[in-house]
Amino acid sequence: MEHLTALELRKTISAGQISCVEAAEEIFQQIDRLDPIIGAYISTYPHQALKNAADIDRRIASGQPVGPLAGIPVAIKDNMCTTFGATTCASKILENFYAPYNATVVEKLLAADAVIVGKANMDEFAMGSSTENSALKTTVNPWDTTRVPGGSSGGPAAAVAAGLCYAALGSDTGGSIRLPAGFCSVVGLKPTYGRVSRYGLVAYGSSLDQIGPITRTVADSALMLNVIAGHDPADSTSIDENVAPLCDYLEKLDEPIEKLRIAIVPHFNAGADRQVQNALYEAIELYKKLGAQVIEVDMPYLDYAIAAYYVIATAEASSNLARYDGVHYGYRSDRARDYIEVYSKSRAEGFGKEVKRRIMLGTYALSSGYYDAYYLKALKVRNLIRGDFARVFQECDCIMMPVSPTTAFKMGEKIDDPLTMYLSDIYTIAANLAGIPAISVPCGFDQNDLPIGVQILTPAFTEDRLLRIARMFEAQTDWHAKKPPIAK
Amino acid sequence: MDHLQYKVVVGLEIHVQLCTKSKMFCSCAVEFGQPPNSRVCPVCLGMPGVLPVMNKQALEYAVLVGLALNCEIAAFTKWDRKSYYYPDLPKNYQISQYDLPLSAGGFIEIPLESGKSKTIRIIRAHLEEDAGKNLHTAGNFSQVDLNRAGTPLLEIVTEPDMNTAAEVRALAVELQRMVRYLGVSEADMQKGHMRFEPNVNLIIAKDGIEYRTPIVEIKNLNSFRALEKSIDYEVSRQIDEFFETGKTLETGTKSTRGWDDVKEVTVLQREKEDAPDYRYFPDPDLVPVQLSKEWLEEIKSRLCELPIHKQLRFVNEYGLNDYDAGVLTADRSTAEYFEQVVAQGGDAKRACNIITQDLLKLANEKGCTVVGLRIPANHIAQLCKMVVMGVASATAATTITTIMSGSPDKPPEVIARERNLIQKSDVGELEAVVDQVLAENPKAVEDVTSGGKKSSKACGFLLGQVMQKTKGQANPKVVSEILAKKLE
Ligand SMILES: [Zn+2]
After folding, report:
1. How many CA atoms lie within 13 A of B302 on its CB side?
2. Is position A77 annotated as part of the catalytic site?
3. ipTM metric
4. What is the separation of C-alpha B296 from the centre of its chain, rounded to a whole number of angstroms?
5. Tens digits of residue pLDDT in A198-226
6. Residue A281 and residue A292: Cα distance in Å, rounded?
7. Which of A94, A328, A363 shows the shortest C-beta gap to B90?
8. Cα separation, B176 vs B185, whole angstroms
9. Contact, A182 vs A405, CB < 8 A?
10. Per CATH, is B427-486 categorized as 3.40.50.1010?
11. Rounded CA gap, B65 and B333, in Å?
């Protein structure tokens, strides 16, 4: 059963071939067997999950209506607030933080009768590309346990890949859903900024953060997006549905886009490993066979995306993370002698190295005398990148590029070299800066049997088309159906 | 030594708490005097993952004040984060407005004692959220009450156009009257609804040269008295300092001082060199506010006649003196009540006397407003007519209003009749009494008719006798006339 997709499980449950309790039990058996090796979860909730599953079974048995995710075991990244368990952000500073409220997406999952099995590991405060920055746990790549799962949503991606849940929610600030999805051979969707409520998502870079699904198939991502998308009065930046209407993302999923025009940016793609490039161009060849037209375009400002990102994201982070000061909640140093030391010592002891690095970077960028040269300049670059995308989308339906320049790298390989680590996000960051949706779809393996993903980007609020384009590829390939040996 | 020539220069920052139902960015109630931390939620506690949602009422109130201050209202305004660490600030940043305030470039007229007015320019007025309160009553520890955190505050900044402490006070009082008129703030000083921060320096003329002393900002004054006293103190302190150190605006530094209410001195808090860098940047969690023409017009329609204009009109239209007009217009409902009395036929001067002398005293005793006494305006108009026609004396009017405040529905004529307070003005009736008194007091009559020193005293005696015989109900004016005629 653990190799079914979420949609398949839904059918199996509604056909009465398996109960929600049985589905959940199987997942917890798999977690017991594999998670000691994988390390995907920071916390699991078997008692609560089985109780909820039993309740859904009862409602199904008595003919009551159930939600679209009825009985489907899902994982959420541990930066989404829940009234059950801690919400740690994989940080010592929030290790014992118990949120008094549920994030909007959590409410939506529960309302859809999903069974939340656990909260998954991540880079501390979603800062990183390998999940090695977690202060609480090590997560490995299910395809090669000596390698990283990618980050920052490494826990959710590894959990989906290893069959430790049927679907997961991650968050993506600069590639944090798509990169681990690519490294773990699963589907990762970053929706348009504003499509999914951020309320209850612990902020990293508020103007970039977006919650999205990590699933085994494109259809499962559509299923998850159906549940989590929509305006939230608690999030002023979530889009008014009159401006950008919602739709049923599953409805036309299998209808291919006719005369698809694909843009590629050759000079930009050339920065990726040969094998990654090959996989990308093979994927594009397949689209050509399906009738697509490929247009080579120039997007000169993409080269500045990383620089702009590390100013904007860290500037926002330096302010967002100011609240973790040991005064109101979270870790408080017991060595503080006055209130200034409550701040300095609690933060010095509570935050990890990368988080401190980014707080300092962002604080610097916002400081008087540097604001114009860094923060303001970065905002200008961001606008130019938006312009690049707008121009390309006038003549193309989508852009395709690698998810990352390499496949999954070794544990410890880049952790002491932040700049090299930052370059892992070179292909994913632009979508966040432009606020547009992007998806990572499995498209092959390198010679070490490590997964490769293809990234597809479309204009803002066209997730329906994005998913259909991705589904066109998935329907012709079986990369997504491959399982890591460890999970078999 | 010549008489010292100097000029005081003061600009003022005023914080006004707006009386919205809920806080600036969450739905917690704005209530004073509640148990600590009982009016809080995850948003105003700055919990991880929360997002602010702008309170539309607060924005409209702020626009209303901006309009009353003759400011330009920005069609596009945004929110910025102001960063600083303090335990009463849960997020360690305050949501405020930095470079695009919602209103700017206005002026306010303030009444001066001479009956004239002065125009003070307003630099800007912007919205922000208030912080909580630190309480230092628990021995070695400080405690934080966050009930006030997130309360909407309007910050108004004037140009340094005031030249005496009395002018500064007049502006503060005028502003209090204005925001109360507009119904946007209770402006209760005791509850900290208005707080002042004056910037003070002097222009000193010495040996034909003008010197400017360094600017001092006095923090957080919360009474008119402290405002006035602290400026007076600062003036003499700055004169002394100038003659001691010779420091000027150019050679000295701007500093911040606190006010010691007990010792009545200002105390140095901070020199400008170590002034904090607030690292303002646009809050990515809030969308900019676009104020449409229609919305602005709708808000404009809620403007009322401003107190200073009403005061001036009362002088011109009703012939009141400036002082009385000021007393009547101190409170909007009282001013409106006065106009109702006049509209119902009450003589303006009589109405003014009854309201400012009798009703205000009664209202103060009851701890309510004049309107709160619930005496119908037409009853007061009736009473005015009775006084003008001589049916009731001024003394009787006082007695009648006192009774009215206990039984507000009783018309004044009924009270006057019941209490025998109707004044006798019938000439025929009173002539008979006068004749009787003259017959009984030949000695006094002789003193009057013979003229000389005893004349006026004897006249008073005779009048007294008449009043005694009529049990005080004779109209003394009529009696005097009869006496004068008979003793010619
Ligand atoms: Zn609140």
Report:
1. 18
2. yes
3. 0.96
4. 27
5. 999 999 999 999 999 999 999 999 999 99
6. 13
7. A328
8. 8
9. no
10. no
11. 19
CATH of domain A6-260+440-487: 3.90.1300.10
DSSP state of B357: I
Q: Which two tokens stand for residue A290?
A: 């399906």
- In eight-state DSSP terms, residue B85 is -
CATH 1.10.10.410 location in chain B: 427-486
Residues of chain B numbered 42-61 and touching chain A (CB < 8 Å): 42, 45-54
Domains of chain A by residue range: 6-260+440-487
State both tokens at A30: 């798999």
Whole-number pLDDT of residue A184: 98
Beta bridge partners of A201: A80
- H or E element, residue B17: strand B5-17
* Residue entry with tokens 């409410």: A107
A130 has catalytic annotation: no
Please judge whether B50 and A200 are an interchain contact, meaning their C-beta atoms are less than 8 angstroms apart. Answer: yes
Amino acid sitting at position A3: H
Predicted pLDDT at B468: 87
Dist. CA A268 → ligand 1 center (Å): 47
Q: How far is B360 from chain A (nearest CA, A)?
A: 47
A387-403: average pLDDT: 98
What's the average pLDDT block by block, 10 residues per block, for chain B (488 residues)? 82 98 97 94 97 98 98 97 96 97 97 87 98 87 93 98 97 97 96 96 93 95 96 96 92 93 94 83 97 97 95 95 94 96 96 96 95 96 92 88 93 90 82 90 86 82 88 84 85
CB contact under 8 A, A206 and B91: no
